[in-house]
Amino acid sequence: MRAIHDVPAPAKLNLFLHITGRRADGYHLLQSAFMLIDWCDTLHFERRADGHISREDLGAPLPDDDLIVRAARALQAAGGAEHGVHIAVQKRIPAQAGMGGGSSDAASTLLALNRLWGLGLTRSQLAAIGLQLGADVPFFIHGGNAWVEGVGEHMQPLALPAARFVVLKPPAGLDTGSIFCAPDLKRDSEPATISGFAANPYGFGHNDLQPVAERLCPSVRQGVELLSQCGLQGRMTGSGSAVFAQLAHEALPAFSASNWAPAGWQARVCGNLQVHPLVGWAWRDK
User: Fold this and answer.
1) Angle at CA 220, nearest 5°, toward 217 and 225?
2) Is 12 a catalytic residue?
3) For 39-82, what is each residue's pLDDT tens digit?
4) In a 3-state reduction of DSSP, which class is residue 224?
5) Which of 7, 219, 250, 283 could pair with 170 as two cysteines, CB 3.0-4.6 Å apart?
6) Is 184 an active-site residue?
7) Which pLDDT score is estimated for 152?
8) CA–CA distance from 113 to each of 3, 67, 246, 267, 274 (Å)?
9) What angle do CA 100, 106, 111 make, to 5 degrees?
10) Which of 41, 66, 105, 136 is catalytic?
């Protein structure tokens, strides 16, 4: 195999995000439900014989040492790969949105290069490499919607009903560190249960990061208000500036085009995914 083209890297939404405490080392203890959606980046991989790793940006330019390049280097070192790769990236998922675009790109890179280079690493081995790159990378490697706890390392599979969502991203982004360092961040939410969540998965809980995010980035509040004006219950996803709301079937035609959103904003109607498109691309653990 010399090339793998049209490799998808789907985004995710945090259906809720509660902070239940903080560890002695400063890391926050979280509970969340991660859901895959069909807003995807696309990556193309061409094997190189010289061992070099190069990247070509087909859309908006990325930082030189982004998570895609770092993932390729980490896998090359961990797997002892002699080959290199040229990676072309069509970036569609907005940055600093709380949608996991960079982590998803890294996960799809690990999965694709494991196959392209014939390394034969298992899903758990790839997830361990991914965890060194970012806390969300293992979620995308494991390949399904998940109930997430701890600092993101504890995941349980979730079955979610099919649904459609409108996702709205303002031009401004958010820095995760600025939110988690805020003194007014709520850090004492009561622990939730999967059974409580399952009774109302698309209306459960809240995002503890949202009040701080709205102060740091007023566009977050504006996005929620825009959804409210359309009769929708919006909330922020993750630690980014994107907001989302579930769409009833009868509301879909009104949101089929993005011309209702303010100039410079990105708006898209997305469906949720039951499994990651690359779920079978890693060796299963025995």
Assistant:
1) 140
2) yes
3) 999 999 999 999 999 999 999 899 999 999 999 999 999 999 99
4) helix
5) 219
6) no
7) 84
8) 10, 14, 35, 32, 24
9) 120
10) 136
